[in-house]
Amino acid sequence: MAKVIAIANQKGGVGKTTTCVNLAASLAAMQKRVLLIDSDPQGNATMASGVNKFNLPHSITQVLIDGIDIRECVIAQTSGGYHIIPANEDLTAAEVKLLDFLVREFRLKNALTAIVANYDYVLIDCPPSLNLLTVNAMCAADSILVPLQCEYFALEGLTLLIDTVDQLARAVNPNLKIEGILRTMYDNRNRLSADVSQDLEQSFGDLVYKTIIPRNVRLAEAPSYAKPALYYDKNSTGTKAYLALAAEILEKDLLEAKRQEAVAKARAAKTVRKAPAQPAAAPHAVPAPQAQVKAVAKVAAAPRAQTTPQAAAPAARPTTARAKTTRTSA
Ligand SMILES: Nc1ncnc2c1ncn2[C@@H]1O[C@H](COP(=O)(O)OP(=O)(O)OP(=O)(O)O)[C@@H](O)[C@H]1O
Ligand SMILES: [Mg+2]
User: Fold this and answer.
1) Superfamily of structural domain 3-269+283-329
2) What is this structure's pTM?
3) φ and ψ at 209, to 5 degrees?
4) Which range (117-131, 197-211, 300-314) has the least confidence?
5) 9, 10, 17: which to mutate for ligand 1, most atoms within 8 A of CB?
C-alpha cells in the first residue's frame, strides 16, 4: 500500500512543485513505484513532468468533480519515470464546484482507493493556499511534507500550517502527521538562512530533514526543458540533494516499518500469553496510530502558542530578534 504524502505550504514559491517533481523522479530512480498527483490549477508539476497541460484528455478535475474512474486519468509516460494525474486551470473552477458536495473533503481520498495499492509512494503537489484542494490532499494523505524557505516570516506560516494539520487530524484524519520539514533554496552565504535553519532545528528537532536543498540554478532551469533535474543535469547539486532526500525518506520508512513489525510481534506474543483472560484487550493497544496522533500533538503544541501577534511563539521570537539584529548590523 502506498504512502500518500501531500507536499504543502500555503506560502507561494517555496519549492513545493520543485520538491514534488524531483522527489518523485528520485524515488522512481530508486525503483519505487510513484504516482504524482498535481492538485494545483497552475499545472506546474504537470508541465515539469513533460505533460502538456493544454492538451489533457482527463485531469484531476474530472476525478474530483465528475467522479470518473481515476484509472482513466493516470498518465504513465512522463519524463521522470513516474506516473502522473495532471492538472490545468480547469481546477480553479473545480475548487468552487467542490462546495456543492455534501462530503467535499474526501473526494480525492475516496477516488484514490482504486489505485493506491499500485504504488509505493503517492505525492500530491498542493496549491499555495489552505483551500479545499489542499484540504482534499490532506484528507487523502498519511503525512505532510512541508518545503520551507529559510527566511523572515517562514516560521509564522509554518505555525498556521501546523494548526491546520492539527485541526484536520482531530476532525477528519486522525492519523495525519507531519512527514518532515524541508529546507529549500538554501543559500549558505546568507546569515538569515543559517539563523532560521538553526531555529527550525531547535524547535522541531527530528522533524527537520537532515537533507537541505540548496539554491541551484539547474533546479530552476529543468522545468523549462519539461524534465526533473535528474534528467536535465544529473550531476548538479540540486539533483544530488533530491536524491539524498529520497534516500533519507526511504531510510526513515524502513526504520518505521521495522519498529512497527517489532511492536506487532511483541503485541502478538502478549496476546497469546493473555488470550484466555483478556481476549478483547489487544485492539486498544494499537500503538502506531496513537504514536502518530501524539506526534501531531507534539508538533502542534509548541508553535500553537502563537495565536495572536502579541503572543509570538517561542520558535518565532529568536528568528525575529536575530533577523532584526542581522538586518541592523548588516
Ligand atoms: N532549490 C532551488 N534553487 C533554485 N531555484 C529554485 C529552487 N527550488 C525552486 N526554485 C525555483 O523557484 C520558483 C518557485 O519554486 P516552485 O514552483 O517549486 O515553488 P512552489 O511552492 O511550488 O510555488 P507555488 O506556490 O506558486 O506553487 C520556481 O521558479 C523554481 O524553479
Ligand atoms: Mg507549485
Assistant:
1) P-loop containing nucleotide triphosphate hydrolases (3.40.50.300)
2) 0.83
3) -60, 145
4) 300-314
5) 17
